[in-house]
Amino acid sequence: MTTHGGLPGTSRPDRGAVLPWKILIVDDDEDVHEVTTLALKRTDILGHPLAFLHAYSAAEALALLRGDPDVALILLDAIMETEDAGLEAARAIREDLEMEDVRIVLRTGQPGQIPELESITRYDINDYRTKSELTRERLITVVTAALRSWRQIRRIQNSRRGLELIVKASNQFIAAEGITSFAEGVISQMASLFDLEPEGLVCASFAPPDRRGSPETAACGDGDRSCQIIAAAGRFRGLIDRRVTELEDDRIRSAITRAFEHRETVHEDSSLTVYFREPSGQEFATWIDSPRPITEIDHDLLGVFCTNISLSAANISLVDRLQKLAWTDQLLGIPNLTALLERVRSVLSASAGTDTILALCDIDDFGAINDVLGHGYGDNVLRDVARRLQEVFGESGTVYRVGADAFGVVTRREVMETVADTITTGLFEGISRGHPEITMSVGVALIDLQEGDPSNQLQNAFIAMKRARRAGSGQIAWYTPEIGTRTRERLQLLKHLKDAFSEHRLYLAFQPQAALDDGRITGVEALVRWRDESGRNIPPDEFIPLAERSGLIIPLGYWILDQALTALSRVHGAGHPELTLAVNVSANQLKHASFLERLDDAVARNGIEPQALELEITESISMFGIDDVLKLLTAVRSRGIGIAVDDFGTGYSSLSSIDRWPISRIKIDRSFVAGVGSESNRGRLVDLVVPIGHRLSVRVLAEGVETAAQWEQLHEIGCHDAQGYYLGAPMPLDELLEWLDRRRFGAPGG
Ligand code: C2E
Ligand code: CA
Ligand code: CA
Known about the structure:
This protein is an alpha/beta fold. It has 24 helices and 24 strands.
C-alpha cells in the first residue's frame, strides 16, 4: 500500500498541476482499449483529468500494478488467457499485491457468464458489466462512481494515517520529535479531510524563553513572540525551523500572520490556514497549499478537526513543556546548567576560531548571606544578581544558573573584558535597592574545540573561578592551558587519594618522642602514609592539602584518629602504658560539627585515657574566629586531652592570642631546629622561641632533631622534649613495637 496519500495520485511530476486519475485498462482485445480511451478522452471527472495505463493480460496487469500503487481504477476484462483470468487477477490484486483501495470494474463480452456473487464481494469488485451495456454515458457514470469511492477510501486511509501519527506523537512524549511528528500528522489529516495535497506546514507561536507563560499576545513578529515552522511536508519541507517573518513567500506569511492575529481559519483561493489553540494557550496554524481553488469547506468538520488536534496538541505540548522545564531554573526562571552545556555544544559545533567565552560567576560568601539573613533573603539576592547580570550583558550575553549561587555567562571575549569590574565588585553600584556588599569570583575560559567537550569547557571556567576565589573575593581569573594542566594533575591525584583511602591503602607511621634530659621515650606522633600502586611514597605535604581542599580530610581525619588510638592501645598493651599519642588535626576537622562527639567516641571505644592523647593543631586555626577557637580548645582540654601547637614559630598568629589558648605544648618547627648547632643566625631563633614556651608554662618540644649536637644544645637552652631522625624516623606500628623493645634499655640516639 502506498505510504503517502495525495489525491488523486501522489507522484506528481510537475508541481502545482492538477493530478489525473490513473485508470488501468486490462483487456486482450486491442479494440476495447481504443474504444474505452476514446469514450473517456477529454473527460474531467470530479475535477481531475484521466490518465490511462494499458495491459493485455492478467500477468501484465499485475506487473504494472506492482510498480504503480496509485492506480485508482481497473477496467478489467473477465475472460482473457483463461475463462476466469479476470477473477483470478482480481484475487491476486487483493490478496497477493494487498491493494485494497484500487477500484475494480469487471467487464465481459458474453452476457451469460456472470461470476458468483460471492467472488464479487470477496474481491471487492465495484461493478460487473457487459461491454455492450457500457455506452459512453454509462461508462462515465460507472467510472465516476468508482473513482469517488476510491477517493473516499484514500481519504479514510490518509486520515487514519494522520490520526496514527497524532496518536504516535502523543506516545512519543519524551522523544524530541514529539511535536514535529504530531504536526506532520496534522498536515496529512487536514489534507485528506479537505481533499488537498499534503503539502504545507505547521507553525507554532512561541513566547521567548524568559517570557513564557504569557500567551496573550499572538501576533507573529511583534517582537515578543516568534512564530516558527515546526513541521512541513512536500515541497515545503525545507522551511522547517524557519521563522514565519523570514519567509519569502508572501502568501504563506500573510495567511499565517492573519490566522494568528485573528485567531481564526483563513480560507483563501489557493490555500487553507487552520488556526488552533490548545487549552493552555499554545497556538498553532497549519497552512496547506492548494493548486486549485478550494470551493467548499465543511465548517462543522473543520470545527471537529480543530477541537481534536487542539486536545492532542495539549497532551504533547504538556510534555514539551516538561522538557522545557528541564532547561530552566525554577527559582530564577533563567536557563540552567543543561541549557548552558547545550549552548556550549552548539558554540563548539558552529565555531572555528571564534572568541566566545564561558564565564562562571560565583557569589562570594553566599553561604554566610544565607545563614545570617535567611533563605528568603538569599533567594532575593539570587534574583537580583540574575537580573543585574542580564542587564549588564543585555543582548550580547546569555546568563545561566549553574549552581546554588553560581551563574554561567556565554558571551564574547571583549564584552567580558569590558564588564569584568562591574561583575566582580560593582554589580549593584549606583543601584538603589541594591546589595552593595556583594562581590563575585569570576572564572573565564575561552570556548575552544581543543579543550574537548562542553563539560570540559565548563571545568576550565570552574578551574579559573577557583583560582579567582583563592586570590580573595571580587577577583576574576582567566583560564590558561597551563593552569588547567596543573589543576587536572591535582584532581587526578585527589582521585587516586580517594581510591587509596577507600581501598585501605593508607596507613599510619609513628615517630617517637623523648625527654631531652634522660632520653626516656614519652610518646609517639602518628603520621599518615600513602604508598601508591607503583610503590611510590607520596608525601603527606602533597596530599593533605588536597584532602583539606576537597573535604576528604573529614572522613580521612576520623579514620586516622581511630587507627592511631587503636595502635596506641596496642602499644600500651605491649608494655608501654606511659606513652602518649599525638595526632595531627586540621582546622577543618576541628570545625566539623560532630568533632567532639566523634573524638569522645574514638577515645572511649579504644579504651584510652584522654590524658594519653594530644591533638596537634597549627596556628592557622585562629583564622576562624578567636571565640570559636577558644570554645573548642577549652572543650578538648576539659576532657584531659592535650593540645600541642605544631610548627610553632612559622605561623602568623599573634602571640597575644595564643597565650589565651588552653594549650599544653608547643612544637618548635624543624626549620628553626635545623640551624641549631651550626653557628648560623637561624639557630639563634630557637633561643627566642623556647622562652616563649616557658612564659606560656607549657612543654616545649623540638621537631626535626637530627644530630647529637642539636640534642645537647636544645637541652641546654631549656627545651623539654625532642622528636627527629636522631631519635628515630616515623615507622609502621610493628616496627615501632620492636623499636620500643630494643630501646627499653638503650640510650638516646641508640
Ligand atoms: P608535621 O606534623 O610537622 O610532621 C613532622 C614531619 O617532619 C613529618 O613529615 C616527619 O616525617 C618529618 N620529620 C620527622 N623527623 C624529622 C627529621 O629529623 N628531619 C626532617 N627533615 N624531617 C623530619 P611527614 O610525615 O612528611 O609529614 C608532613 C606533614 O604532613 C606533617 O608535618 C603534617 O603537617 C602533615 N601530616 C602528616 N600526617 C598527618 C595526619 O595524620 N593528619 C594531618 N592533618 N596532617 C598530617
Ligand atoms: Ca605534627
Ligand atoms: Ca611540625
